[in-house]
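Renewal narrative, Specific Aim 1. Our central claim is that a sequence can be written position by position from structural information alone. The example that follows is taken directly from our test logs and has not been curated for this report. It begins with the structure tokens describing the chain, in the order in which they were read.
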């Protein structure tokens, strides 16, 4: 087999395959996603910055790329690893192939990998750093390159907007300031559809600047990296608690928990995919959720805060939601806007609007 690309892991494993997309060398953290569809939304989700994603579903690329399905204008995913890549998509909406888009944004891809073996390795050994490179690179040289590449801590500042943007609703009923830590486009769509005028602000916007915009509520988005790296956002939320209704998802959930004094920790391999069951404690209903995160909120540390747990992951009992109703603050670890994923949790946007209006709904 004339393989031309490979993956070298920091602990010395090698996986051989073939190139698609960009062919540059790249050091990333390797993770896996269990979604059966939605690869365009995955490669354009800013939460995957500096990460190489292994798709557990074997066939990728078969429906191409559609202009309306991007979750950010400039994808920043570290790399994509698949079993079988299809470069002849069949879809009337498709404008480009996946490989063409990945070349344009310098995203390396490898196909032909035994992804079942690789996913099992990540589950057993945990997420770790890898090098995507040409097949002829000596393993020892690749491991040394991984060791000499600093671990980045600037992921949120890399993907957050640089200026304030206003995205109005057709029939506005309220005004939301959204703190962009790497926000997906479908979050704004979900808020706009419910009558929210959305003002998007950079991740390091101060509480004073946000209050000056006179919002009815504050939203904190998803985003990449370690939540403890996002100190300016944590400090902003500390100052806004009790002043305005606040809703956070994914990284926003972790930021809210840290602002209240809880702790976060890095998971062994995280949650990524559109099929994670979560129990709503208030209703005892099970929601099938879309997830993408490496960190979780520590359950024990929440006991020393005024936050109560609202949602629990049924696969590993991790915290999936918290709230403080007296402060009008709540958050979830998963992605209620889906894209890709199920729509079980759309109600959370309605809950946010209801809190702003002065009512209450169950988490």
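The sequence written for that structure reads:
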């Amino acid at each position: 087999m004339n393989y031309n690309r490979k993956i070298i892991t920091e602990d010395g494993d090698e996986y051989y395959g073939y190139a698609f997309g960009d062919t540059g060398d790249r050091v990333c953290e390797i993770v896996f996603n269990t979604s059966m569809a939605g690869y365009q939304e995955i490669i354009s989700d800013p939460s995957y910055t500096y990460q190489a994603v292994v798709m557990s579903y074997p066939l990728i690329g078969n429906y191409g790329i559609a202009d309306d399905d991007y979750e950010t204008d400039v994808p920043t995913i570290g790399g994509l690893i698949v079993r079988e890549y299809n470069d002849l998509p069949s879809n009337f909406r498709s404008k480009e192939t996946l490989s063409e888009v990945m070349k344009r944004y310098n995203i390396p891809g490898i196909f032909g990998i035994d992804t079942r073996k690789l996913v099992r390795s990540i589950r057993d050994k945990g997420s770790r750093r890898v090098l995507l490179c040409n097949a002829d690179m000596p393993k020892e040289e690749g491991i040394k390159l991984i060791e000499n590449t600093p671990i980045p801590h600037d992921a949120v500042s890399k993907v957050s907007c640089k200026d304030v943007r206003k995205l109005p609703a057709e029939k506005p009923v309220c005004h939301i300031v959204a703190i962009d830590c790497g926000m997906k486009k479908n979050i704004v769509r979900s808020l706009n559809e419910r009558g929210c005028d959305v003002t998007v602000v950079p991740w390091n916007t101060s509480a004073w600047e946000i209050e000056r915009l006179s919002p009815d509520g504050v939203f904190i988005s998803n985003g990449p990296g370690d939540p403890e790296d996002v100190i300016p956002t944590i400090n902003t939320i500390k100052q806004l608690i009790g002043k305005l209704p606040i809703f956070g998802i994914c990284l926003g959930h972790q930021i809210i928990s840290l602002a209240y004094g809880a702790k976060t920790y890095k998971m062994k391999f995280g949650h990524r995919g559109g099929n994670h069951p979560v129990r709503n404690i208030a209703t005892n209903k099970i929601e099938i959720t879309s997830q993408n995160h490496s960190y979780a909120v520590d359950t024990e540390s929440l006991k020393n805060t005024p936050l109560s747990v609202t949602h629990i992951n049924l696969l590993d009992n991790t915290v999936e939601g918290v709230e403080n109703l007296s402060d009008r603050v709540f958050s979830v670890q998963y992605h209620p806007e889906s894209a890709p994923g199920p729509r079980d949790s759309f109600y959370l946007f309605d809950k946010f609007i209801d809190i702003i209006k002065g009512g209450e709904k169950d988490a």
